[in-house]
Amino acid sequence: MKNLFLLFLGLFSGVVTAQEIPSSQVFWETLAQHCGNAYEGQLVSPESDARFEGRLIMHVRSCEEGTMRIPFFVGEDRSRTWVLTKEGERIQLKHDHRHEDGSEDKITQYGGIASNSGFSEMQVFPADQETTDLIPYAAGNVWWITVDEQSFSYNLRRIGSETYFSVKFDLTKPVETPSAPWGWENE
Fold it and tell me: Which of the listed residues 15, 113, 136, 160 has the most CB atoms within 10 Å of its CB?
């Protein structure tokens, strides 16, 4: 009875209890609300890049237990998918790159796992050992994703260099669902 009273008192007074939802879970649930939807984005940094010309679309296409797959289309290029996986209270980001025939690119499955539960609106992913082994110059990569009611952004900073990439998507205006990314069956 005493524990129940203390729990009630803590909730009533605004004291945070051990049952508080981890920020990574809040982030996950916010993103999961967009499952099945696609959104148009724009390049934030650099302001222009020939590799990212064309319409930029993200599609929160697959939301399975503990895994979300978000294809990122650049014009007709459907080679990129961001894969988020829950690892306890942390989230892992991997980049799945495919060729038009569906085969894996030689540079694929790189990324990192958040070093902590992050923020409810932002998760940060420093490059993991698999990335360092695959792409040695990317050992200093730090990716972060932000999500709130209005927008989703995907960002990359390579520590020790001028490399900074950012693309932002408007979550208030869903667009037509695109075709499947390369290597997927159209469902």
Answer: 113
Q: Is 52 exposed, middle or buried (0-12, 13-18, 19+ CB in 10 A)?
A: middle
Query: Which regions of 11-101 does DSSP assign to beta strands (E)?
Result: 38-45, 56-59, 62-64, 67-74, 77-87, 90-97
Assigned token pair, 126 = 């420093």
Q: Is residue 185 part of a domain?
A: no
Residue 40 carries which side chain, given as an amino acid letter? E
| CATH number of the domain residue 127 falls in | 2.40.128
Domain of residue 63, residue span? 22-175
Condensed to tens digits (0 to 9), the pLDDT of residues 116-165 reads 999 999 999 999 999 999 999 999 999 999 999 999 999 999 999 998 99
* The model scores a pTM over 0.90: no
In a domain, 8, yes or no: no
For residue 82, being part of any structural domain is answered with yes
